[in-house]
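name: query_chain
kind: protein
chains: 1
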Amino acid sequence: MRCMELFLRNRSIAVLTDQERERLEAAVAERRRLPARATLLDRGEHLRQSTMLVTGFMIRYIDDTEGRRQIVAFHVPGDFVDLHAFPLHVLDHSIATLTGVEIGIVPHGALKRLTAEDPDLAQKLWGSTLLDAAMHREWLFRLGRLDAVGRVAHFISETNARLAAIGYSDGKAFGLPINQTDLGEITGLTAIHVNRVLRMLREERICTFRSSRVEIADLPRLEQIGQFDPTYLYLENRSADPASPLGEENSNG
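structure:
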């Protein structure tokens, strides 16, 4: 898969032209594979490049003083996981893989040339970081206002919508190779509490999450419980492309 194939796919806020995608692809200096559960960048590192996620899943996280992790962003293929480091240079959080991944490395020098030469492309890259900010605001709402069941339901609904937009979900089922501890660190719950929530969702025939796969039986109910409104994702549409060859790749990174 090409590095930029999924970047801003189905995003109504910004759609790349073929020429813009080619220019970004040419800016990729290196492709690299990383194993699952590997740290890519530590908080406070000075960066001279940004990372595009090509396959697999990654996270951004912050550790507290006792070493407990709070996941603050979940990344799917097509995401620039640290594009905000282009102007900021230093991260205030760490970045790690959840699954085996393939990434593309884009030097900041190349991004600087592209944004100077092409103002439209620069605005679309800016738009990508604004989408990240929109998701952060929604995550704050989820952690601050939803109960345990609502938090899990919201995250599953959001992930379903994001993966459907890139052909990794058919809207009813998708691979999600994370464990209950990961889900707890995403939703601010203990693994035991997550287990209870997942059992309730299964018994109520709303959705099932087992063996790294989510199957949604009642999407409207799931989204209602999670108070999920996809407006903040700025998706052009919420349906998966039935011709996409990507639907099975998300289960193995």
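note: Residues 147-251 form a domain with the Arc Repressor Mutant, subunit A fold (CATH 1.10.10.10).
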